[in-house]
Amino acid sequence: MTWVRNKYGIDVCEYNQLYRWSIENPANFWDLFWQFSNIRAHKKGNETLLHADKMLGAQWFPGTRLNYAENLLNHRNSHSSSIIFHGENGTTRHISSAGIHQRVSQLAQALRNENVKPGDRIAGVLPNIPEAIFAMLATACLGAIWTSCSPDFGVPAIIDRFKQIKPKILFVSDGYYFNGKEFDRLNQIMPLVKALPSIKKTILIPYLNSEDLTVKSPLLLWNHYLSSFSESLPIEYEPMKFDAPLFILYSSGTTGPPKCIVHSVGGTLIQHLKEHLLHVDIHPGDSLFFYTTCGWMMWNWLASGLASGARLILYDGSPFYPNTDALFDLIDEFKINFFGVSAKYLNVIQKRGVIPKKTHDLSSLSTILSTGSPLTAEGFDFVYTSIKSDICLSSISGGTDIISCFVLGAPILPVRRGEIQCRGLGMDVDVFDENGQSLQNKKGELVCKKPFPSMPISFWDDFEQNQYRAAYFEKYAGVWWHGDYVALMDSGGMIIYGRSDTILNPGGVRIGTAEIYRQVEQIDEILESLVVGQEIEDDCRIILFVILCKDIVLSDKLKIIIKQHIRRQTSPRHVPAEIFQVAEIPYTKSGKIAEMAVHNIIHGHEVKNRSALSNPEALEQYRRIKELITLK
Questions:
Q1: How confident is the model over 246-300, as pLDDT tens digits?
Q2: Helix or strand or coil: residue 613?
Q3: Cα–Cα–Cα angle for 215, 219, 220, nearest 5°?
Q4: 287-290 and 311-316 as β-strands: parallel, antiparallel, unpaired?
Q5: DSSP characters over 250-300
Q6: What is the largest CA-CA distance in the chain?
C-alpha cells in the first residue's frame, strides 16, 4: 500500500481499497508488484499487459525473458538449511542453499548432456523428497517442462497422464512409506517405461533401499547418473518468455482422461510470489510447510516458497503416523511458521479429540493454511480453541486450473468465522447468477472477469483451444467460470458451498454439498461422510453416506438424530431422503471426496477413470446398495 501511495499518489489505506485498485489497474498493479518482489529477469520488456480486454488472448510482460529456477535459487545462505526433509520412517535431512545449488547444477548438466531443450517434458514419479525439488529446478533451468505424480498412483493412472505429453526423461523412486508400511514400487517401473516409448533415460532414486542397490539397464541410479558432473559449476539459466511453459498439471480425471493443464514460467512465479509475500506474509528465513504429495498443485506452490527466501519443510508419509498429532511434532521440531493442511485433516484431528495447544509449544506458528475443501465454521472454532488463539487462519481456494488461489487470506484483515478472508489481489473475482448478473450475499457461481497472469497457457495438444474454451468460457462469454458454488459477503470475504457440478437441487432449490457436510461433521458418531443427489421423477433426492465411529451401527434412532440436526440447523430441503452406512468413501488422488464417481455409480453410469481414485475398490459397496437403484 505504501508503494502504491508513493508511486501513484492514491490514498490506499486498507485491503479492500488496495484490492479495488489492483483490479481496476491490473497493468499498474502487476508491474509494481514485479518491482516490489524483485523478480530477476534477463530482459524486462516495456509492456506489462497487451489485449487487457480479452480473457483469452491477453499477453503478460511481452518481450520479457526470465527463468523460474533462477528466481527460486536467488537466495543464498550456506549457513542454514533451505530445505528440511522429514520422513515417516524417522529420516531427517538438512540441505543448505549451497547444497541445493550443487545438486541442481549437476542435474542441469546431466540433462543438458541428454540434449534436453526448452519445451521438452521431464517427468517424476516421486515422494515429497528433496530430489523431486532438485529435478524440477534442473528442468526449469533448461527451460524444459516439469510434470509429476506421487508413487501411490497406479501404473494405469500414470500412463493416462504421461502418455499424452511424451516425457523424455523419467525420475522414479523405488517406493514410499505410508502409515508404518513400506510400499515397494520397483516392479512398476519397467511396465511404465515400456508403455512410454518417448522416455530416453530413467533415473532411479533409492528411498527404501540403500545407495548400493543393484539395477539393470535401462535404469540408472541417481548418484551414478550425477557422478560425472561437477558440483561447483555455476548454473546456466535459459532465458524464457514470460508465457513459456513450465509445469504440466492434471485434472482429477474422474469423468474422463485427465486434462493436461500447461502453466507458464512467469505467470506461476509472479502469482506465487504475490500469494507468499502479501497474502501469507513470508519473509526470508521463515519456515513453510504444506502437507502434500508431488501429484497435487500445492507441491508446486510450496516449492515456489524458495523465491521468497522461505525454508521448505518437506514431509513424506501419513499425517497420522506414528500418532494422530505427528505433524504438530514437526512444528515444534523445525520451528514452522506457516503450516498448511487440508480442511479434512483438521476435521479428523478434531473428531479424534486432539488438542495440540495442550501437548505442544507451537510458539513459532503464525499462520495455518487450509485448503482442499471448505473449512466449516466449527473448524475455525477448533483451530482457535484447540490449536492456537493468536494466529492467522487462512482458508484458501483456487486449484490446479490456475496453480494458485482466487480467494485466500490477508494478514492485515480480521479472520471471520466460516469465511475465506478476501479475494486475491489482481484477481477480478465475482459471483454470478445463471444470467450473468453479479450477486452480493447470495449464492452463485464463482467467476473471474479479467485476465490474470497464472491462467493456463493451454491444455496440452489443444491447438485450437477448444477444450480450454469449453472448460472455462462456455457458461459466461468472455468470463472465467470456475465451477465453485459460493457467496461473496459484504465484508469482502467469501463462503464456498461446494462444486457447481455436485450442487443438489431438491424441489428446485440449489444446495451446496458443503452446507450438509458442515452439519454432519458436528455429530459425534460420524467420522466421515459423502453426499450426492439422485435424480428421480424429474426431481432430486439427497442421499447421505456415513462412516461411523468404531462399533457404532446406523440405527433408525441415529438416522432420526442426523435428520433432525440437519433440519434444525439448515432447512427441510437439506434433509437427506436416505442415509446409508458405508465402510469407505472414495477419494481422488489429491484427497478430495469423489462425489461425481458415486453419483455416476448410483445412476448406473460408468466411472470413466477409476485410476484417478486413490481407492477405486470403495465404489463397489455403493453399487451393491439395492435401495439406490434409479427409478425409471
A1: 999 998 765 567 899 999 999 999 999 999 999 999 999 999 999 999 999 999 9
A2: strand
A3: 85
A4: parallel
A5: E---TTSSPPEEEEEHHHHHHHHHHIIIIII---TT-EEEE---TTSHHHH
A6: 71
CA 524 to chain CA mean position, Å: 29
Q: Which three cell numbers stand for residue 586?
A: 472414495
The SS3 assignment for 35 reads: helix
The CATH number given to 503-628 is: 3.30.300.30
Cα distance between residue 548 and residue 583, in whole Å? 8
Check residue 90 and give its pLDDT. Answer: 93
Cβ neighbours of residue 226 closer than 8 Å, sequence gap 6 or more? 103, 106, 107, 110
Residue 97 cell numbers, joined: 542453499
Class of domain 425-502: mainly beta
Sign of CA dihedral 623, 628, 630, 631: positive
Rounded Cα–Cα distance for residues 592 and 253 (Å): 12
Region of residue 541 (phi > 0: left; psi between -120 and 50: alpha; otherwise: beta) = beta
Q: Where are the domains of the chain?
A: 1-37, 425-502, 503-628
3-state secondary structure 364-426: CCCEEEEECCCCCHHHHHHHHHHHCCCCEEEECEEECCCCEEEEECCCCCCCCCCCECEECCC
**DSSP run (H or E) holding 45:** none
Query: What distances in angstroms separate CA 475 from CA 446, 483, 595, one per listed residue?
Result: 11, 10, 22
* 365's grid cell: 506458528
Half-sphere exposure of 9 (CA within 13 A, CB side): 0
pLDDT of residue 203 exceeding 70, the answer is yes
Distance, CA of 459 to CA of 476 (rounded, Å): 20
Q: Determine how many CB atoms are found less than 10 A away from the CB of residue 233.
A: 13
| Residue with cell string 523465491 | 307
Q: How many CB atoms lie within 10 A of CB 213?
A: 14
Q: Give the integer Cα–Cα distance in Å for 506 and 569.
A: 17
State how far the Cα of 527 lies from the Cα of 615, in Å rounded to an integer: 18
List, in sequence order, every residue forming a beta bridge with 399; answer none if it has no partner.
Answer: 404
d(CA 307, CA 310): 7
- Separation CA 102–CA 231 (nearest Å): 5
pLDDT at 480 exceeding the cut of 90:
yes
